[in-house]
Amino acid sequence: MITKYSTGKKITLILMALLLSSILSANDIADRAKLKSTMRDILKSMELIQRGGFYANPQQMKSGVNSLKKNLSLLDAKHAKTYLPHDEKYAYKFAVKREKMITMYADDIVESLKTNNMDDALEDYAQILKQCSSCHLRIRKN
Question: Residues 94-104: pLDDT tens digits?
Answer without folding.
Answer: 888 889 999 99
